[in-house]
Amino acid sequence: MVKRDLKLLQGTLDVLVLKTLESGSHHGYAIAEWIRETTDATLQIEDGALYNSLHRMEKRRWLDSRWGVSENNRRAKYYRLTAKGQRQLEQSTSAWNSYAEAVSKVLSSTEGGR
Question: Which residue has the higher pLDDT, 53 or 7?
């Protein structure tokens, strides 16, 4: 299998993180790990990108955070969705699904450009 370098489209990481947090609060490593596992390692989130996304969404009040202890007995910051974050997830999911459907139509077309 050829290793592909997939760069996330702007805004995609935010919706993936919001989706991860839909099930409850998680720390950064757990968020990245869930995305990696769920995509069969196709998407691997760099720490810098993940924490920039988490901080940006916290400033927008899409997320709340609190300090806790991880499974490895280490201090970790846990993030959870706010009501505003849940609304953003719903809007972003709808927009992303529309975008993916449009791209799929183009890619599955047999006529090509004219």
Answer: 53
Rounded to 5 degrees, what angle do the CA atoms 79, 24, 80 make? 25
* CATH number of the domain enclosing 18: 1.10.10.10
Torsion (CA) 37, 39, 40, 42 in degrees, nearest 10? -120
This model's pTM is above 0.70: yes
**How far apart (Å, rounded) are the C-alpha atoms in residues 93 and 112?**
28
Q: 27: domain range?
A: 12-107
**Residue 26 per-residue DSSP state:** E
Cβ distance 46 to 8 under 8 Å?
no
